[in-house]
Amino acid sequence: MDNLHVVLRKVFPLTIVFALLAAGACFSEEIKLSTIMPHQDTLSVTRGAIGAAYKDMPDEDVVEDGIVVGKGIGESNLLVQGKVGIGTVDPGTNKLKIEGGTTEVAGGLIIETRTDDPAAPKTGRIWLRTDF
């Protein structure tokens, strides 16, 4: 009887451990944390500041007694510290590099690269011939 008691003392804890492991395998659960953003391919903001220089800049100008004492980002502005590439991932040494297609500025100035002269040039349009 004493031998049976010793065996049960050693086997019983192992039985409990195996039972817990088996239960864990049967009832395991995976939890995923994620954020939900409508239109995950679109980022829409009214203003933005990119770079350490603008880290603590307020959204609006700081005004004390009617005097602007600190500049804010302002409505519909984008401030970028460093270089900007549009249509490219490498602006090189340029502050702004735009690749691909026509660039229109303020609805009036259009700069484009072409291999021929336009048939009917428009006022305010500049073209650069790349075929020479």
Secondary structure layout plus pairing:
Elements (H helix, E strand, L loop, with lengths): L1 H25 L21 E3 L11 E3 L2 E4 L7 E3 L3 E3 L9 E3 L4 E3 L3 E6 L10 E5 L3
Characterise the protein shown here.
- With 132 residues, this protein is of the alpha/beta class.
- The chain has a domain at 83-132.
- It is built from one helix and nine strands.
- The strands form four sheets. A three-stranded mixed sheet has the order 7-8-9, with no helix packed on it. Strands 1-4 form a two-stranded parallel sheet. Strands 2-3 form a two-stranded antiparallel ribbon.
- Strand 2 and strand 3 form a beta hairpin.
- The longest helix is centred in the first third of the chain and has 25 residues, at 2-26.
- The chain is elongated and about 110 Å long.
- The N and C termini lie far apart (106 Å).
- The mean pLDDT is 75.
Overall spatial form: elongated
Poorly predicted sequence stretches spanning 5 or more consecutive residues: none
The amount of helix comes to 10-25%
Note the total helix count: 1
Mean pLDDT value: 75
Beta content:
25-35%
**Strand tally:** 9
- Which strands sit side by side, in order, in the main sheet? 7-8-9
Sheet having the most strands: 3 strands, mixed
Order of helices and strands: HEEEEEEEEE
Overall structural class, as computed from helix and strand content, comes to alpha/beta
Distance between the termini: 106 Å
